[in-house]
Specification:
The complex is a heterodimer of chains A (about 260) and B (about 325).
Chain A: E1 2-11, E2 19-29, E3 34-39, H1 45-53, E4 60-65, E5 68-69, H2 75-78, E6 82-85, H3 99-107, H4 121-132, H5 151-163, E7 169-173, H6 181-198, E8 201-205, H7 209-214, E9 218-223, E10 226-232, H8 234-237, H9 241-252, H10 259-263
Parallel strand pairs in A: 3-8, 3-9, 6-7, 7-8
Antiparallel strand pairs in A: 1-2, 1-4, 4-5, 9-10
Helix pairs in contact in A: 5-6
Chain B: H1 2-28, H2 36-52, H3 57-80, H4 86-105, E1 109-111, H5 118-129, H6 131-141, H7 152-171, H8 175-185, H9 187-192, H10 197-223, E2 225-227, H11 234-249, H12 254-277, H13 286-327
Antiparallel strand pairs in B: 1-2
The chains are: A alpha/beta (about 260), B mainly alpha (about 325).
Chain lengths: ~260, ~325
């Protein structure tokens, strides 16, 4: 479903600030794969996400989605195939518009936008059904402005908006990191539910190792722009945080230097 | 007095179309677009030129709309494809339009006094139907002495302006309209939902300046001339209308906000007319009054809000204090 070949990018090349953000990344996701990505700050996780979504373009390498080479395709064109949830709960929704209008925007993702009303009777029924899945009572507040919702509610709505049009790939970029623990828990379990029901091919970046272990069928660890660990299936099931840290030490020869990643 | 108020409302309703255009760029796209000062005149120039050349008045109005759309699109292209800062793209386009407008008109002023315009045609129709006479009698019975020359301009412009309002309301709820509104609110988000923000901005600025030029074209036919300098300060008048209207009428829904813009445009005209009629102010003071109006519209609602809030807190404190005392 997603195929990344030999992807590399260097920022500020030729200056003292030169940074090899990604080096020869190879990654292939099968349909229905749910891959969690962990790694310390600066490991290249977000750069990889931005490269897949088209916010950044690689120096070399190829990105393929569902068999189509999208390496040079602009962000908004690629977005027809990609659902995204950002770290900032404010980033995925439009605060001055109503819940219904936000969903209507998401609904039009994989269509050509026309001069017909964004929300009609039929779509409203669909929106309510979808909102129902969040168990937050939002289905009764279709005409409430999204700016009035709490961070957790907004992130839940963002998650729904990113997924309910069945994109080829779902990108989750530390989407629970900015929430308080109980809300983060809620979004985490919603993520698990929705991905399971819709069987979306998903790539989730997280700082929270426990979350990376709990969710998904495959785990990759990144460090210094490289994928250093790729575990799936039964082996992932047996993983623990201690084992992950030991693995990191075995591969890199040093301790993982990020408290946030360990405790998070 | 009655007659000058009548004229204020009349031109206010025409200026409301311009204010709706400003609302589209300023509020919906969050793009402070100074093209308006130029595109208003472009509309007036094109419509005057077409009338002088014997075109039907309706065609002249559509011509103005189209010319404004082109001007706005250029500003949009400068900003999106040329990556020029929004304010600067507007200023550049406004400057360029000054010369373009002079080229269109060929001279700095085109009088339409002896030409048939949209409004002279309306007046003839209203006269022949006896509508003007009907209102004249009604007002005379109420004791009004100086009667307006015609009611046709006001009535038809109300119809036209509200028609534009309803079309705008509908447009802003379509799939394209929703995407436009999201641009001014959260651009990253709407791009992640596959909208081409560059194209949408060009379209939005085109429509915005199309409305501004439409108002310019109508205003030229209404006053009977097109002048190279008639657009100076137009953006501030538009902003004033939007801000005054929003603080008086509110912004709860799109329909309410566009109504607010129209009301704001009329209030603005009325206040300016009243101010100029007073003994100690004259025409030169209108800019100062405009600035003061905008400041008032921005500051007063804030002050009212904070006073309400502090009153609420004081009451709450009193109640709590009493409860504490009773408990002790």
């Amino acid at each position: 479903m997603l195929k990344i070949e030999d992807l590399s990018i260097t920022f500020n090349e030729g200056t003292p600030d030169e940074k090899k953000a990604l080096q020869h990344i190879q990654l292939e996701l099968k349909p229905g794969d749910f891959v969690t990505v962990i790694g310390s700050n600066g490991a290249g996780k977000s750069t990889l996400m931005n490269m897949i979504s088209g916010a950044l373009f690689p120096d070399v390498g190829i990105v393929e989605i569902n068999g189509q080479n999208v390496t040079t395709l602009k962000e908004h064109k690629r977005a027809k195939k990609i659902g995204r949830v950002f770290q900032d709960p404010m980033a995925g929704t439009s605060p001055k518009m109503t819940i219904e209008e936000n969903l209507a925007i998401a609904y039009a993702r994989n269509k050509t936008r026309m001069l017909k009303p964004g929300a009609n009777k039929k779509r409203r029924v669909l929106f309510k059904e979808e909102l129902n899945r969040l168990h937050l009572g939002l289905e009764n507040r279709l005409s409430a402005k999204v700016g009035l919702l709490s961070g957790g509610e907004r992130q839940a709505l963002s998650l729904l908006m990113a997924t309910f049009t069945q994109p080829d790939i779902l990108l989750l970029d530390e989407h629970t990191a900015a929430l308080d623990p109980s809300r983060a828990e809620l979004i985490t379990s919603l993520t698990g539910e929705i991905v399971k029901e819709t069987n979306l091919t998903t790539l989730m970046v997280t700082h929270n190792m426990q979350q990376a272990l709990d969710l998904g069928n495959r785990l990759i660890m990144m460090d210094k722009g490289q994928i250093i660990l790729d575990i799936d299936g039964a082996k992932k099931q047996a993983l623990t945080i201690e084992k992950l840290l030991q693995e990191f030490k075995r591969i890199r020869g040093t301790d993982m230097d990020n408290d946030r990643a360990i405790l998070g | 007095m009655f007659i000058s108020m009548f004229n204020a409302v009349e031109s206010g309703v025409i200026f409301a179309i311009m204010a709706l255009g400003v609302y589209l760029s300023f509020r919906i796209l969050d793009f402070p677009d100074l093209t308006v000062d130029g595109s208003f005149v472009t509309g007036a120039a094109v419509s005057a030129l077409m009338i002088v050349n014997g075109m039907p008045t309706g065609v002249a109005i559509l011509g103005a709309l189209l010319a404004g759309f082109l001007a706005g699109s250029m500003t949009g292209l400068l900003n999106t494809k040329g990556k020029v800062n929004p304010l600067l793209s507007g200023i550049l386009m406004m400057t360029a339009l000054y010369s373009i407008n002079l080229r269109i008109m060929g001279q700095s002023n085109i009088p339409l006094l002896n030409q048939e315009t949209f409004f002279t045609q309306l007046r003839t129709i209203f006269d022949s139907l006896g509508i003007n006479q009907f209102f004249d009698q009604g007002l005379a019975a109420l004791g009004v002495e100086n009667l307006p020359a015609t009611y046709s301009a006001l009535i038809i412009m109300l119809v036209v302006t509200f028609l534009i309002k309803f079309v705008t309301d509908y447009f802003l709820k379509t799939e394209i309209g929703l995407a436009l509104r999201a641009i001014g609110d959260n651009e990253q988000m709407i791009r992640s939902f596959s909208a081409n923000t560059d194209h949408l901005k060009v379209l939005g600025l085109g429509v915005s300046n199309g409305l501004v030029a439409l108002a310019g074209g109508l205003y030229a036919q209404f006053t009977g001339f097109s002048d190279l300098n008639m657009g100076i300060g137009m953006i501030v008048i538009g902003l004033a209308s939007v801000i005054i209207g929003e603080s008086v009428v509110g912004t709860k829904t799109i329909g309410r906000t566009t109504l607010a813009v129209i009301v704001g445009a009329v209030i603005y005209r009325i206040v300016i007319t009243l101010a100029i009629r007073s003994d100690f102010l004259d025409n030169g003071d209108t800019k100062l009054i405009t600035a003061l109006l905008v400041v008032l519209a921005l500051v007063v609602p804030k002050v009212v809000e904070t006073t309400k809030e502090s009153n609420r807190k004081r009451k709450k404190r009193q109640i709590l204090n009493q409860q504490v005392r009773r408990g002790a």
